[in-house]
Protein 1
Amino acid sequence: MKARFSGTCPECGGQIKAGKEILKNSQEKWVHKACSDLQDEIP
Ligand SMILES: [Zn+2]
């Protein structure tokens, strides 16, 4: 999904800008889509 707010990605430490594609990882943290350790969004 797309980020509604800006924040920080706990995986890479980079900024997440509002409107960027993000995913929850296995620890229920919002990270960049490319940084998630899960495969993809739950269908
Ligand atoms: Zn990241």
Protein 2
Amino acid sequence: MPDLSLVPPAFGYILAAVFGAIIGSFLNVVIHRVPLEESIVFPNSRCPSCGAVIAFYDNIPVVSWMLLGAKCRGCKERISFRYPAVELLTAAMFVAVAWHVGPSAALPFDLIFVSAVLALIFIDAEHMILPNVITYPGMVFAVVARIAIPYLTGTLHFDDLPWLSQGMFAGMPVWVTSLAGAVIGALIGGGSLWLMGWTWEKLRGIEAMGLGDVKMMFMVGAYVGWRLTILTIFVGVLTGSIVGVALMARQRDGNMQMLLPFGIFLGLGSIASLLFGTQLVEWYAGQFR
Ligand SMILES: [Zn+2]
């Protein structure tokens, strides 16, 4: 293992930003193609308007969009601001996660989790769906991470693990405790979303949520554990309600049936919880000690 403490931190953050922008460019492909049920590997990126293949030098994250003046080189059709926005946001998130996790074997896992959540946020914003091709592999990924990370970095990476290993799972092998944490988190995450949808359906007689949110929270809950899952739902419901009320006030025709893509708010909540949740929960619990 090379001594990573010798690498200046700034270099690590620049690397995280560049890598994030490249992954952001890939997420743009995922966000565009997955809802259309197209392959994300093949064919090469094409202009959505004229179909011209985009050359590698016109496909450099953020930079190409600016150099081309937000227009396709061939047909001069406008290229959406969403493309550089996703690249910049992913770069910023990678820097934040690198700052949070530090040089650790757990870092790639957190980066994959955040990338999957970012893809879900943008697909939900545009199509109001949370595709199974992301949430199902996401659940498998969470289980793999839950088993692997404690052996790579110790029990401190997962918010719930130190707590569980001292409590009812004391003396158990760490992978059993970690998996139990994943199951508890998934049941609390998916279960509460399912219950919210079910209650809303009984009260209003309309289907409020697709099962996409439930599956997304199975994945999130398994990865972040029960405490950060509750925080994720709290942040999601709070921000979603604020935005929902603001939008309804603007609409003025009192259309209460308006559906919000809730996955956006759950996604933002899960990333915020991953980055700041443990400190926030500890601070909150400290108020009662
Ligand atoms: Zn074009």
